[in-house]
Amino acid sequence: MDCEIDHSTPLAKIVGSGHSCRMKILVRVLPVLLLLAAPAANASELLPSMAALAAKVAPAVVSIAAMAPAPKNPPLDGGSGKDRASVFHPTADTPGDAASTVVPPPKTVESLGSGFVFDPSGYILTNNHVVNGANNVTVTFPDGTVYPAIIAGRDEDADLAVLKVDAGHPLPFLRFGDSAKLRVGDWVLAVGNPFGMSNTNTAGIVSALHRQIGDTKFDDFIQTDAAINKGNSGGPLFNLKGQVIGVNSAIYAPNGTSDGIGFSIPSAMAEPVAEALAHSGKMTRGWLGVGTEEVTPQIQAALRLPNARGVLVGAVFQNSPATSVLRPGDVITALGGLKIANSRALVIRTAEYQAGQSVEVDFIRNGTARQAQLVIAVPPPAQDESIAERQTPPPVPVTLSAYGLGLAGKPAANGVSITSATGPAAKAGIVAGNVIRQVNGIVVITAQDVRKQVEALGADPAVFLITGAMQDGSNPGPRWVPVKPAK
Fold first, then answer.
1. Are 243 and 225 in contact (CB under 8 A)?
2. Nearest alpha-carbon partner for 118 in 292, 243, 289
3. 139 contacts 60 by C-beta, under 8 angstroms
4. 63, 80, 233, 249: which one is catalytic?
5. In whole angstroms, what is the distance from residue 475 CA to residue 109 CA?
6. How many Å apart are CA 180 and CA 336, to the nearest integer?
7. 93, 119, 155, 159: which is the annotated catalytic residue?
8. Neighbours of 364 (CB within 10 A)
9. 113, 217, 424, 435: which has the fewest C-beta neighbours closer than 10 Å?
10. How far apart are CA 432 and CA 104, in angstroms?
């Protein structure tokens, strides 16, 4: 039995009106009911509570205030940070009216940022751009305790800095996790000091990995949609175990605030830098000593590689860590257990090691997978490999006393300039400012050329092709002027 449904008819009346109509309604309504009910049943699995995690990590996350002298020529945007490359705002941690009107001259700029304790003796990691140029840094803990801090070390290449506070007792601290184990879609928690609001927690997922935005020398960012704003710089990004897997550093902010795209420095880069800055005040990155190129499909086919991942070794530098270990034609596939996809990945992975550390390198040679140990070394000083131009002494002035001529060392555009004319030269009508173009029919370019030609004449007169004004100020154009040298 078919029927036509009037949508103004109550559902109860339709269901009771006939078998065929009842089945059609149930088929169309039941999935809607199931969709509405399903999320409620699985909400605890899809959206885990982060309350315990937030409470656990909170004591070690700090707010940072860094004071620096105000620039003599403040930016026209009032310190909004829009002078930074495009719409990425890692430096936008200063208030809009950054040049304070309260602090007496010299005025100062206050940068508000975040950080976290990674060593109980008082070492705190943050972004370099939070404290760069600061002459006064204070750190505030969630319980309100304020400590003055010193900058123990800065690494501009990775945009990281380590502060040191003296609390007089061990401080709560956080441990680093393994950012290499992150997957797109993993839950993360960001904690920091956005807009000066300390201990602010925001959650999201890992949106992407290995992002390059042109912010640091070793861009390899974790992208997250956890809300990150001005003041979050230097704060930690946590996995669900409460481990720091990133340092929040930049946001995509065309409107100056979070648009759901934030960037964090992976712990794989942050941890070794933090340890190096805490112990030695600087990060001395390692060097492998190889020149590499990408593995193209053609190279893959020629070397019979299983895929195009890895980098082809094109050269091995003498007395480098790779000497006697790698050869041209090898394909590096992993460093320190982490896969290498391309040349940039090899540069970044190498930069995560300090000079002197031993690291395992995986490579393919003649179709066979191999492993070897390398000791990362300090890179050699940069050398200028360009061919140096032959250095010639600067031209010097020449005086021809027998002719009463002073000649400029620097050549003129069309000959040799006369700087003084006395004696025989003056009697012949030559004046300072004239230019000698030829001597006895020989073209001259430098003062030394003129000297050479007149000395060859001995006591005979020299005939100069002269340009320029005469003694009376008139200028007849080029003219030949004979001058007999004085005895």
1. no
2. 243
3. no
4. 233
5. 65
6. 11
7. 159
8. 20
9. 217
10. 61
Annotation says 169 is catalytic: no
Cβ-based neighbours of 370, under 8 Å, separated by 6 or more:
362, 363, 364
The C-alpha atoms of residue 195 and residue 339 are separated, in whole angstroms, by 39
Separation CA 214–CA 221 (nearest Å): 10
Tokens, residue 126: 């943050």
Task: Provide the token pair at 405.
Answer: 């001529």
Q: Are 151 and 255 in contact (CB under 8 A)?
A: no
Q: Is there a catalytic annotation at residue 179?
A: no
For each of the chain's 487 residues, which pLDDT tens digit applies? 444 444 444 433 333 444 433 333 333 333 433 333 444 445 455 677 899 999 999 999 999 999 887 666 544 333 334 344 445 544 345 554 444 434 445 566 778 999 999 999 999 999 999 999 898 999 999 999 999 999 999 999 999 999 999 999 999 999 999 999 999 999 999 999 998 898 899 999 999 999 988 888 888 999 999 999 989 999 999 999 999 999 999 988 777 666 788 999 999 999 999 999 999 999 888 888 898 888 888 888 878 888 888 999 988 888 889 988 998 889 999 999 999 988 889 989 998 888 888 999 999 998 899 999 999 888 877 644 444 444 556 778 999 999 999 999 887 778 899 999 999 999 989 999 999 988 887 888 889 989 998 988 888 888 898 988 888 888 888 888 889 898 7
> Measured between alpha carbons, how far is 322 from 335 in angstroms, rounded to an integer?
13
b/e per residue 25-41 (b: at least 16 CB within 10 A)? eeeeeeeeeeeeeeeee
**How far, in Å, CA of 402 to CA of 484, rounded?**
9
Cα R_g (the chain), whole angstroms = 38
Q: Look up residue 194 and give its two tokens.
A: 């956005």
Instruction: Return the DSSP state at 381.
Output: P
Residue 159 annotated among the catalytic residues of the structure:
yes
- Catalytic residue selected from 114, 119, 129, 343: 129
